Amino acid sequence: MELHPLGIWTPPRSVEPRRQPAPALSSSRGLGGGRLSVDKSFDFFGSPFAILSPSEPDDDWRRLNLDSKTLNRLSPSKLLELLTDLSPDVSRALWDFLRMCNPGWTIKVTRPGSERVYKRGDDALKEFFDLLEDYYGSLDLIYSRLYFSAFLRGAMLSELVLDPAGREPVDLVTPDPHCVRFRVRDDERRGRIWQLGQWQRGQWVDLDRQTIRYVAIDPMPDRPYGRPMASPAIFSTLFLLGLLHDLRRVIAQQGYPRIDLVIELEKLTKAMPSDLENDPEKVREWVAQVIKEVETAYGKLQPDDAYVHTDVVKVEKSVGTVDSRSLGAVEGIVRTLERLSIRALKTMPLLMGVNESTTETHAAFQYEVHSASIRALQHPCETMMGRQFALALQAQGIAASVQLRFAEMRAAKELRDAQVQEKKISNAARKRDEGWITQDEAAQEVTGHAAVEPEPLFRAGNQQPQSEPEPDANMRRPTLTAVK
Q1: CA–CA distance, 122 with 363 (Å, rounded to integer)
Q2: Angle 140-152/360-395 helices, nearest 10 degrees?
Q3: Cα 123 to Cα 19: distance, rounded to the nearest angstrom
Q4: 97-128 residue pLDDT tens
């Protein structure tokens, strides 16, 4: 017996072992029908008439007064949602991440243990894809949501929804991984494990179906939750946004060059009427009136007018913070915050437009490293979706293996591969020509198989064949006749 989170004693439930990716059963037993998870832990009290309006990050920024102290008022998950729309750095990193993760994809349906295409399974899966495209417009939307979750939540969560009878796939949903929780549970075979679940309308619901898949990104050894990729960028991006908003106000108030008018009180006092000298209040009013007249006269000036004044008013040089040294340190601060954000967002300076001292070699290496990181995140998504599509076929009584593969960004890699291949050919030919290896050994290094000819047809430095072929006896050579 175990204690339910609400204080109700419930008998322990055994957890079935997870089946292999290639389903061996032709029935949908154990898959379950209908949807079990919800997109959020709260659902407006289950009202089917709830209407969700589009998000307005700019209004949220003004209403919440977001600045560097916002961490004390909002949760990190909510902050990351706002920063994806408000922060140029987070928005750009997310934009590049989503498009590099899914530049294209291919899918292959085969029989278990075979590499041949299984036509019946392929046709059934295409029908399911057509259904999903009717729902979402494109199947890429589902992949984009999974990678979006990996970037902001540190995990991917999906559920294959079957009809009530559990015999036909009807949807593939991607709930927010932030709304699920894990609890410790004792399993008869595996021992103490973490079990996935969710709070729904105040009740704990076990998400222990095979159709629900949670894949954590870089979890700690003792925790089941993933680590959001963008979470380290919260502080630097908020700092930068707050700095830019404050800087905008400074520039609007003091930044633009303005004429500096100085009223010299000593000269103004000499021009003051003598009957005001003994009344400080009248003196103050008279000086304010003079200043008001100067302001009124200057405010009425047209662009081509001249400002004519007495020597009491002195016109100084135009001043503004943009032209002074007071804002000189801002550029260095902004550059430092941008570099911190690039590191925190797991991206590269090349992709963020920061290439002040980047050479072509460094840029190629940065792109290669970033592509390797992207490929490492494509693998768990491929495994998850391949499993879900295989279960969709299993529910229909089709035992098949589904292999999903996302395309790689190989535009620059193809050039480097060709250069490496050219170097290999050159090295193998040099070894052969020096007599260090044979023709077959050189062919093995380059192509992986024996040479097609016992001797090389061409030698380095001499592009002519070693021996000319014998002419065909039946072929007549043309006779050249000199023309006088």
Answers
A1: 41
A2: 120
A3: 24
A4: 999 999 999 999 999 888 899 999 999 999 99
